[in-house]
Amino acid sequence: MSLFRLRIPTAQLLINFAQIILIFGYLTLNIISVGEMGTGILLLAGFVGLAGGLLFVQGIQNSISVYWHFFLFLMFIMWIVVRVIIDLQDLYYLKQITVATTGGILLFFLMGTFARRALDTFSTLNENVKSAKLLLIIFALLCFDIFLEYSARLVRTDIFYIDDVDGGYQRAGSFLILLFIMGSFVYLKIISNTVTKKFFDLIFWLIVYSVGLFFSLVSSQMIGSNAATANLLAIYPMTVVISFLAFSQQLRNTFLENKLSVPLSKSGIKKLLQYSIVSVVGGLLIAVLALQVSGFDLNTTRIFGFGDGTNSSIDSRLNILKETGSTQMGYSPIWGNINVAYLTTGNSGLYLHNFIPNIVAELGVVGVSIVIALFFLVFRTLIRNIRTARINAQGFQQGILNLWLFCVLLFLFIYANFSVSKGWLVIWFFMGFSISVFAIRRKQS
Fold first, then answer.
1. Separation of alpha carbons 199 and 248, rounded Å
2. Residue 25 in this model has a pLDDT that exceeds 80
3. Scanning 46, 56, 150, 434, which has the fewest C-beta atoms within 10 Å of its C-beta?
4. Using CB atoms within 10 A of its CB, is residue 193 exposed (0-12), middle (13-18) or buried (19+)?
5. What is the pTM of this model?
6. In 258-391, which ranges are E strands?
7. How many whole angstroms separate alpha carbon 14 and alpha carbon 24?
8. What pLDDT is stored for residue 421 in this prediction?
9. What is the count of structural domains for the chain?
């Protein structure tokens, strides 16, 4: 038995690495195969199976606690089930909204929490974070591979858009965001580690991370996913600014002297603003220079309407909200109705593409109350994790990572209320990613 227990840490790390490779591979395959049916289901099954098996073994050997926000999340899922059964009696739609690989809220929430556990464990495998560096290089290479695959399908010269997308850009774009979120998290793991002290280290790994961004951005526009472009352009500067905070030796020393509350302090906010200005200005200058050197015409991209100066996706969302928003939200304000778009407009495709308004319309006050309580609990937990970080090197890293999680989740929530409905897989993945559902504690011997 003692020999078996000695081998458990090594076995767990191998399983965690396998999980990461499987989820990276699954996302990449589905991004590359845009315009086709979903693929790589065995990779996803392997990822979930390994995560479930590892959790089962840990549950036998240790005690497992489940955080309260997970119960709120399950209440939300149950309310969706009730409304679908009452309003639609459509089991296929129920599957699509809960466990399908395009918009399954439950599936992607659990994927997020399992991915976070695997990344947390494997990226801290060694003191010099070689494992995290390996993952970041793999991330950048996958982004380059996606770019190459798309480039081979870029046959048009009038617009920057690949052939045979067939409306599949939304799913591929969302998967691209998930891959970038995990790459950003690994990058911060490297920079916030105490061994990353040399300026060369910061610049080198920032370049590797930025390479991943560049190829991801270009790929997002080759498939016409403005959502992916917008999210990447928002998450990247947040990550870079917070990485500068993490790298600041002065800020780190102030924290270790117990004179700094991350980030709610005068010095922390001051540096945050300084780094934000430098990052934005620097990023804009690099972008302008790159466009001038390459001669690339932004008007050929979908984000600029392929030259017509408008963005049809944003306009259509605003028009639906303006013309039918009050009618849909007022149809059944307490209980909601999943089929409200069809009942009020005669077209089920005219649902509200705005996160909270869509939940109000389809799930009523009951549903939106659960969601608001869920987000409140997650945000409160992230803030508490920042404020109560231990006064040591590991505590500083945890404070930095939780600050990043808070900022990204806040952005995703704001973005969702302008552009997407309740089934946006990115926000549910990140909800699971932000705070682990399960806490594993060693049993008292």
1. 10
2. yes
3. 56
4. buried
5. 0.91
6. none
7. 15
8. 92
9. 1
